[in-house]
């Protein structure tokens, strides 16, 4: 008998597959006659025709098989990725089809929401994709994985654009607010990016100062660490009093639009939050610079500027950018809360939805925030990988 | 070439170097040595203005170093430090090219120079040029450090315990390579070490320092033969006759080795030298692997001459031709033999060195 002790069952994939398979039996869609009343649950086999439902069940079995079977190195993650993306595709298509089957064409008020089962299956499928994305090492495998994810995203965009998902509650909420949505999205992005830009402008000098002047290190880190411990809602609230006082007493500030509520206190609070990762990583990047490299550079006749541009910056920028990445992802999330003090952004929909007890409206705010944060994270990671000198990659890897 | 005239350096009123005067002439290797904290590294750093003297003057070719901008001064002076300080984000070639690039050499000249230097320090340029520092061993990295310091062909080289962090085996190898390179390039070298054997081996003159002062400045032979005062005597130690042997490479004192090849018929090889010698090295696959006693003339040749062979491990007994008489002697004492085979870098037998020839050297030393 052929024993392959090296190929064991993949526990992460297995738990994803089991979770998804269980979720298959939970509520897939819920149908509500209008936006406020409670929905009526439908399972997968009540939503889609039985062969289609069977296909989805089969895909979960396939995912479990990928986790359990002793497959060769690249085959297992590829199989899991294929299963994961096909499952997401099925959920999208079933939802689109369910809209046609469960709601009469002339009925403009009824709407669908994804049920607990659909959400859980989406999460489990995402888990499959994430895990297999990690395990696909060869260029061909990575390309295949990226293509699968791109295919799923393209399907989502196509279905949305063609109006086939119009029965979904979140789409209906969007359609009512389509003109405002883009505005709030832009505002959200501007607030997050603006705060991070300001944090970079302040945090990098702070990091350098705390490195160069030992005296300031503890106070600086005490301050930026303390800010981080204040709950975001409280920090937004704290900003209101001083800013409204300033705005009352200084007319030119008022003319700029700086008031106790609105974008000004939000930007300030978000900037303060973003300070810690930027300051800390700047400090760390300088602290781990090899003093021998600096001495060698000086001893070979580099001027202060040459040392800065040829040695210090190339060695520290990847680490500083790592801090910027964390700050950005955090800021995109925190900006959601800023809607509470009238700063706008996608949080507006979240809090409207909470106020009106309409889950679909909450999702209209929350889902784009998640998408933005994920995209920002990905883009920053790619950029950092691209900008990091080859000789540092190993060091980075060791730290991770 | 380098002159320090009455130089002192204070750190917050604590003197590190006191009224030190020293001249290093062109092409000379001057080694600064002394117990830690004696100010030897500080002295070295005053030359390329990594540190500024509190008083006194430092001159290079008769010009005060203060008349140069520090950066321009340093580009004319090679600088090697113990921690090497290779730039981790640059390849080996780029590391070597740092100073030529600061001097705006044309690209093609830089490339050719970096290849030339890699070969000079004994590394294949095709293999090492595109490596990154983290891929190098300690000895390789320090070779690159030396190549980098030599890149712009500076007339002066400052070396601050360059081989201090390398393991003893590699250190000896690096030392002999440095001696070989120095014999070719004739740089003016100021070299800091705390290792007396290294100093004796490499120095033209040794400057022994203590508490920031120069205690004795002499050639290694004179320092060992005539230590000035009790401090120097205790520093060089009672084994100074032995230390002196570090001055001499095996290659200069070895004699040709007679050997038999194990692959060929033994009896006829032995017959040919009967009466001329009483033992021969045994070479197997071009490497010494034992010795054989030659039966004296008149005694019958045994039926199985192989029985006369004493085998040994070449790695334990043989010395490299670049090694010093001191390590040859230590091999002999360690293995209890009166002669050891000498091999070249490829492990081929190139000669033998005997206790007699080493004794001749020590006798000559005690007479002077």
Q: What would you call the structural class of chain B? A: alpha/beta
In angstroms, what is the radius of gyration of chain B?
25 Å
- Discrete helix count of chain A: 17
Largest interface: A-B, 25 and 29 residues
Shape of chain B: globular
Instruction: Specify the CATH class of the largest domain in chain A.
Output: Mainly Alpha
Give the CATH level 1 class of the largest domain in chain B.
Alpha Beta
- Radius of gyration of chain A (CA) equals 26 Å
CATH T-level topology of the largest domain in chain B = Rossmann fold
What percentage of the residues of chain B does DSSP assign to strands (E)?
25-35%
Total separate domains of chain B: 2
How much of the sequence of chain A is in beta strands?
under 5%
Strand order across the largest sheet of chain B: 6-7-8-3-9-10
Cα separation of the termini of chain B: 30 Å
Low-confidence residue ranges of chain A: 395-400
Name its key features.
heterodimer; A: 400 residues; mainly alpha; MetI-like fold; 2 domains; three-stranded antiparallel sheet; flat; disordered C terminus; B: 368 residues; alpha/beta; Rossmann fold; CBS-domain; six-stranded mixed sheet; four-stranded antiparallel sheet; 17 strands; 37% helix; globular
Outline of the structure:
The complex is a heterodimer of chains A (400) and B (368). Chain A is mostly helical and 400 residues long.
Q: Can you tell me about this structure?
A:
The complex is a heterodimer of chains A (400) and B (368). With 400 residues, chain A is mainly α. Chain A has two domains: 11-168; 178-399, Orthogonal Bundle (MetI-like fold), CATH 1.10.3720.10. Helices cover 77% and strands 3% of the residues of chain A. Chain A is built from 17 helices and three strands. Chain A has helices at residues 11-23, 44-47, 50-68, 75-102, 116-135, 139-161, 169-176, 178-212, 214-229, 232-249, 251-255, 263-287, 291-299, 304-338, 347-356, 359-387, 390-399; strands at residues 29-32, 40-42, 111-114. Chain A has a three-stranded antiparallel β-sheet. In chain A, α13 (291-299) packs antiparallel against α14 (304-338) and α14 (304-338) runs antiparallel to α16 (359-387). The mean pLDDT of chain B is 87. The two termini of chain B are 30 Å apart. Helices cover 37% and strands 26% of the residues of chain B. Chain B contains 16 helices and 17 strands. The chains are: A mainly alpha (400), B alpha/beta (368). The A-B interface holds A 290-303, 306, 310-311, 314-315, 389-392, 394-395 and B 48, 50, 70-75, 79, 81, 83-91, 98-99, 102, 132-134, 145, 148-149, 158.
